[in-house]
Amino acid sequence: MPNKYSFEFAIIRIVPKVEREEFFNVGAILFSKQKKYLGIKYKIDEKRLEAFSCDIDINSLNDYLKAWESICLGEPSGGAIGKLELAYRFRWLTAARSTIIQSSKTHPGLCHDPEKELDDLFKRYVL
């Protein structure tokens, strides 16, 4: 059996009314230093968002999450943060914030395949 690799992950959530502290999960982000992997997977359930708050622009939220994806991939559109090493990008994305898009605390784990693990986390916590 192949080696297991350590990873860290966080769940991405939308907090429509920060003052109410209510949220719902929309994605997952996973980092594995050993496998040199940083990935994100997300999907916003529009009906669920509307149930929480009808005055939030879904296009803005999708743009924000696309920026997170650009940072993960190290694309030029990821700006200065996207140029940093993987670990720094992960730490920046999972830092505590009081904005409409937040991440959970980070959690550790072991896996064989970080990309498959990200898919499994997404299915477990978002879908």
Description:
The chain has one domain. The model has no long low-confidence stretch (mean pLDDT 93). The chain has 127 residues and is α+β, with helices and mostly antiparallel strands. It has five helices and five strands; from the N terminus they run E-E-E-H-H-H-H-E-E-H. Strands 1, 2, 3, 4 and 5 form a five-stranded antiparallel sheet that branches. 26% of the residues are buried. A hairpin with a 4-residue loop joins strand 2 and strand 3. Helices cover 37% and strands 26% of the residues. It has helices spanning 46-52, 58-73, 79-82, 86-93, 114-125, and strands spanning 5-14, 24-32, 37-42, 101-103, 107-111.
In short:
By secondary structure, the protein is an alpha+beta fold.
Low-confidence stretches: none
How widely separated are the two ends?
29 Å
Beta-strand proportion: 25-35%
Number of strand elements: 5
Q: Count helical runs.
A: 5
Structural class: alpha+beta
What characterizes the major β-sheet? 5 strands, antiparallel
Helix residue percentage: 25-40%
What's the mean pLDDT score?
93
